[in-house]
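Quick entry, no commentary yet.
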Amino acid sequence: MDEYKSTVPLWKRIWQNSLTQMLLMSIQAFCGPAMGDAIGGLGGGGLATPQISNIASAVGYAALAVTCFMGGPITNKLGTKWALVIGSMSFPIRGSSYYCNSKFGNQWYLILGGAIGSIGAGCWYVAEAGTILTLAPSGARGKYLALWIVSRNLGQLVGGSINLSQNHEESVSNGLTADTYIPFIIIECLAFPFAFFISPLERVVRSDGTRVVMAEALSTKKEMKQIIKTLTSKLVLLSALWAVWSFFYSGSWSTYLATYFSVRARALSSLISPFFCIVGCFGLGFILDAKYLNQRRRAQFGLYIVVLLNVGVYVWSIVKQVKFNHHNPGHIDWDDEPYASSFLPYFFVQTTGPLSQSYMYWLLSSFGTSAQENVRNGAAFRCIEAVGQAIAYAMNSQTKSSPLVGFCVTFGLLGAALLPMIILVNMTPEKPLADIDTEQQQIVSDDKGGAANGYAKPRMQE
C-alpha cells in the first residue's frame, strides 16, 4: 500500500478508490434504472393502448431475462467497465420511445424500444450487480449498498415532482405532454459519459487498502458452462424465491394507487415516499456493518428485521384492502380524512421493498470469492428478478378492480421464500469468502518471503 501511495498520483488514487467508484455507479443507477422507474410512475404509455403497453412490457422483460441469463460470460469477457458503457447507450431509448409515442403516436417504436433497450439494460444490470457486489470493503458493504439502492429509488422523487407540478390542482385529469419526457431523456443520456469514469475492477483499491480479488480468466466455453453451474448452485437455488418476491410488490401497489387515489394524491405519494427509504436503507446498512457481530449473526439479525417489517406492512395492507372491498372509498384526495391511513402502507412498502433488495445483495456478496464469480451470481439473480417482474406485471394487468390478489400472492411468496432464506443465512460464512482467500494468499506470500530470508513465519496452532 505504501508503494501504491508513493508511485500513484493523488487524483488517480481518488479515482480508483472504491467509494468514488460506488458514487459513480450510483450516479449511473440514478440516470438509468431510476429514470426508467420515474417514467413508469408517470403513466408513461402516453397515447399507447393498454394492449400495446402490455406487449411492450412483456417483450422488454423477456429480452431482459434472456440477456441476464447470458450476461455473466458476456460481462466477464468484455470487463465490467465496457459492459457498463455499452449498456448505458441504451438508456435514452426508453424515454425517447415514450416521447415519440406521445408526440407522433407510433406505437411500433414503443415495442421495438422495449426490446432493444432491455437488451442493453440487461448487459448493464449484470455489470452493475457484479460491480456493487465487489467494490465495498468488508466493513462497509451495508452502507455502500444503501447508497446504491437509494440512488436507484430516487427516480420516484423526480417523477413525483414533475407529476405534482402538473397535477397539483384538484380534479386535474389531463395527460402528460410530449415535452414532459425531454428532461428524462437528457438525464438518461448522462449515464453514458459517466460510464467512462468507471475503473476496471482489477485497478480498484478499497478504502481499507485491500484490492479486488480477480480469478483467472476463463475461455468462452468454460464461461458458458459456468452459467448452469451458477444457476444450480445452492446460493442461487436458495435465494431464487426471494429474488422473485423482492421485486414482485411494485405492480400490486401501482394498482392500489391507481384504483383508490386521485391524480394529485398519487403524485404527492410518489414524491414523498422515497424519503423514508433513505433512512431505512442506511439504518439497515449500519446494522449489517456492525463490528461487534460476526457476519453470520449480522445476516440472521438483518433477515429478522426485513421479514418482520414486511410482514407488518402486508398484514396492514391486506386488512385495509379487505375494508376497501366491502366499502369502496372512491378516489381519495390528499385533503380527505382517510388519506393518511390509506397512504401509509404504500409509504412504508416503498422502504421495506428496497430493504429486501439491499439485504439480498449484501448476503450475495458474502459468498463471492472473486469479481468474476460476483458477476455470475449477480447475472443469475437479475435473471430471476426479471422473470418475477414479468409474472407480476402480467398478473396485475389482469387485475381490473382490486389489488387484494396481488397483495396475497406477494405475501405468500414471502412465506415460501422464508425457509430457503433461513437455510442460506445459516450457511453464511463468518467472514466474506473473498477476504478469507485474500488472507490465505497473504500468509502464503509472507511464508515465501520469510523462507527466502532464512526464516518461516510462525503460525498459530489449530
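second:
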Amino acid sequence: MAALPVSSAKFVLGLDLGTTSIKVVLLDSQSRTVVNSSSFPTNSEINNEKYEHAREQDPARIIGAVDQCMDVLPTEKLRDVICIGVSGQMHGVIFWKTKTGCEWSSSDAGHTFRPRDVSQMITWQDGRCGSDFLSSLPKPESHLNVSTGYGCASIFWYTRHRPEFLWEFSVSGTIQDYVVSMLCGLEGCIMTAQNAASWGYFNTACSQWNTDVLKGAGFPVHLLPVPVQSGSMAGQTCSEWHGIPAGTPVGAALGDFQCSVYSCMVDRTDAVLNMSTSAQLTFAMPADFSPPREPDPLSPIAYFPYFGNTYLAVAAALNGGNAMATFVGMLTNWMKEFGLELSEAQVYSKLIQCGLTQPSTDLRVTPTLLGERHDPTCLGLVSHISPASLSLGHTTRAICRGILANLAAMMPPRTLLAAGVKRIMGSGSALTRNEVLRQEAERMFPLPVVYGKDVDSAIGVAMFFNDKL
C-alpha cells in the first residue's frame, strides 16, 4: 500500500483574548487564508461587591476558553504551526509570581497550562479610578492621557488602597502578555509598545516607561514589563501545547485594536469604522508623523502606536453598540415588570424593523451613557420630544443616529477628508446586525462606506506574523 502524501502546508496560529470571548484561527502561510477557526465566550466576569465600579475577570476561565478553542482545531494542522501570534484586550492588568505563574499538565489532548499564582484581571472597563483620583496622579511624559482601567492607573490605585495585595506578586502585564509569558516559559514579562502605551506613563518616542516620574510618586516600578518593539518575537514554546511542537516561535503580544485594523485596512487611504460593544473610527497617519509631546486631556482623538514606528489616529468612543443594547435591556426589563416575556434578541429584531420604517426623525438622543474618556462626566440626553416622535421607530432611529453623531463629533468628517481618506471600511457586530446603524453611518460621513471585510484581531495578528516570516 502506497504511503499517504505528507502535507507541505504550514500554518500560523492567531489567538485573540477579547473582553467577552476568545477566538483562534489557523492561517495558511502560503495562501494567507483562514482554514480553521473557533470561538468561545469566556464567561469570566467576577462580581466584586467590595469595591464599587470594579470590573474584574477570572484568568482560569479565560484560559479554559482558550483550551476549548484549541481543542476544536484539527491536531494534524496544529502539528504544522510554524508561528503563534497573540493579541488581546488592551489597558487591563493581571499580576503573577515569577516561575509559578502557571502549572503545566498532560492529557490525551496534549500539554496545557492553567493559572497558578496569579491575580484576578482588572479590565479596561474598571471604574475605580475616578476623576479626583486621576487628578492626584503625576503628569505623564507621554502624548497619551491616563484613564481609569489603564494598567498604570490600576496599579496606582492598589499602591494607595491595597498595597499588601501587590506584595504577593513580582510580575504584571496584560492578559495577552501573561499567555505569551507562560507559553514561552519567561521568568519576567515583555510588552510591546502597543500594549505599553495603553497602560499610560509610556513614552512611545523613546519606547520607555516614565520611570523617574513613577518612582517619584511611589509606584512599584519593579512590576513593569520590559518594553519591546511591536512585532518582536517573545521566544519559543517551552513545551508542546495542544499539539503545537515545543520550540515554535511566539510573537510578543500585540494590541487587539491594532490587529483588527491590520486585518481590514487594505490601503493607507482607508479609514476603519468598527462598531461592536464600543466604537472606534481610525485612519493611518503619515509615516513621518510624530505625536505631540504632551497629552491634551480634552482631545477626543488619540494617536496609538501601530507598526513600523507609525501611528493611528483614533476616536475611541466608549458608547457604541452597548448604547443600543442598554435600550434593548431596558425595554425587556420593563416588559417583565408587566408580566411579559420577550428575549432580547426578539426585542432587538423588532426595534430594527421599526427603525427601518422611520427613515428620519426630529427626536434627538445623545447616548453617552458611559461618558467618554475626554469628557467622563457627560451623560445621556433626550431632546426635541413631541407626541409624534414617541414611537419605537423614532426612538430607534434617534439612538442609532446619536451613536454615529457622537463618533462624528469626536472625529469630524472634515478631519477624514483633510487626511486624504477615500473610503470607510465598516465592520463590527453592531453594524453587521443593525441596518439602521449602517444607514446612519452612510449619512453621517461624506465618503463611501464599504462592508464585507470584517475586522478580526485573531486574523490580524496571524496575518501580521505571517507577513514577517
